[in-house]
Design goal:
single chain, 140 residues, alpha+beta, Aminopeptidase, five-stranded mixed sheet, 5 strands, elongated
Length: 140
């Protein structure tokens, strides 16, 4: 499968990235590399040219209590699982220089393709998002 994104690496200038939301900027600048080393999350970037990052997203394993599922989904799930495996799309951000160009949608589609491909070999029944604010809720 071909993806638009690549795993974050030291070739790209993380410090120049700014989406305008401190928590998302700080994550990429300070914590993403540590999380990757610790295997807490995977961070994928959409690069431009030689060192610029257009946007990024993170994926990690997660789970959801079966009791929180809507009844129509719950009845299709095996009763032996108290928690069902999911994938967390934890962060998604686009540099403010690229806002309004559909880059967020491209990143979302790329993340869903990665999720789907991984779910074939590692069970995951859904993608979970944790929106930062009302703008993110509207986006998702």
């Amino acid at each position: 499968m071909t993806y638009l994104t690549i795993p974050l690496n030291s070739t790209y200038n993380k410090k120049s990235f700014s989406c305008g939301k401190t928590v998302l900027d700080d994550y990429l600048h300070k914590y993403a590399s540590q999380d990757i080393k610790r295997k807490v999350s995977a961070c994928f970037i959409l690069p431009k040219d030689n060192a610029c990052i257009i946007g990024y997203y993170t994926l990690s394993n997660d789970n959801i209590p079966q009791e929180e599922l809507p009844e129509e989904i719950k009845k299709k799930m095996p009763k032996s699982y108290s928690y069902l495996p999911t994938t967390l799309l934890g962060r998604l951000a686009v540099d403010k220089n690229f806002k309004g160009q559909g880059m967020g949608e491209l990143l979302l589609l790329d993340s869903l393709q990665r999720y789907y491909d991984a779910s074939i070999t590692i069970g995951s029944m859904a993608v979970v998002v944790d929106p930062l604010d009302a703008e993110a809720v509207t986006f998702y």
